[in-house]
Amino acid sequence: MGKLKKFLLVIFVVVVAILTIYYGGKHYLRGEVREVSDEVKSFAKESTKEECINEIASRVKVCETVACYTRVSLFGAGCFRIAKGDKEAFCRANIGDGEEESLSAFSEQDCIAHELNDAGCGKLSRMIQKYCGVK
Questions:
Q1: Model pTM?
Q2: Across the strands, what pairs with 48?
């Protein structure tokens, strides 16, 4: 009976923690998303998709937390979607035909130019791949 009580207590604590995080974080996240959305609209309406890369790189470079990377990911997705320029041409220029060599060539060229570390480079590369539909 002691093991069952411990198990139920653990389940109860986990459920309470999840509910607290969900309902407490829900309001916080809405504010964060709204703030990032305003930033994206302001920046991207007069920018090109290439300028989005530069802005995302500058933001990724200073990230140290998951929350920061999440904000940058939201910004990047919106920026690519709203910014001026043809999606197909942008994707061809930045990831080629989607082959592995093209993706690593993007990482080497642009990440070095933007002075990104491996983590930042990976984040930026994945944002572009996701926008371009590369799995």
A1: 0.70
A2: 84
